[in-house]
Amino acid sequence: MELQYQLRAGSYYLYDLRDAPSAVTGERRFKLKTDNVAIAFDRHTGHVHQHGSPARIQSWATHTRRRLRAAGLLQDANDLVVVSGPLPVEEINKCLWVAGYCRRLLTRLASLPHGKLQRAGDPASAWKKAA
Predict the structure, then answer these.
(1) What would the pLDDT profile of 20-52 be if each residue is shown by its tens digit?
(2) How far is CA 20 from the centre of its chain?
(3) Is residue 105 part of a domain?
(4) Which residue range is the domain that position 108 belongs to?
């Protein structure tokens, strides 16, 4: 549980929890700021290969699939999945922290709520306010 995404002001921030907070502000420095998050993982094992901004992850996945196919590993290339968009921050973090969780995420992807409509810690709060 060293890396963690947080949703702030409509953007996803990636923090490394091993970094000590600043003595002045009490905040950790973020490693990445992006509007949407992409996760590349193996469809069968759920192993996370890469995560970050969608453009970088899609580029990495395209290049990796090309290399795997050139090496004759067609099944490995076909098993590489990239999921991106405004995903709920809790789901993104579970993918990083729980081995194989991305498989479950993939099966529930269509039913997940829009990630930026939720408040951290209370997934239902956005729906309560809208009603």
Answers:
(1) 888 898 888 999 999 999 999 999 999 999 999
(2) 23
(3) yes
(4) 36-118
Which segments within 1-131 are labelled E, that is strand? Answer: 3-8, 11-16, 30-34, 37-42, 48-52, 80-85
Q: What does the angle CA 98 – CA 1 – CA 90 come to, to the nearest 5 degrees? A: 60
Q: Is residue 55 part of a domain?
A: yes
* Distance of alpha carbon 65 from alpha carbon 56, whole angstroms: 14
Quote the pTM value.
Answer: 0.82
Q: Residue 127 in 3-state DSSP? A: helix
Which residues are 32's β-sheet partners?
A: 14
CA separation for the pair 80, 61 (Å, rounded): 7
What pLDDT sits at residue 1? Answer: 58
Question: Tell me: the pLDDT tens digits for 96-120?
Answer: 999 999 999 999 988 888 877 755 4
Q: Is the dihedral of CA 67, 109, 39, 86 positive or negative?
A: positive
Q: Give the chain's domain count.
A: 1
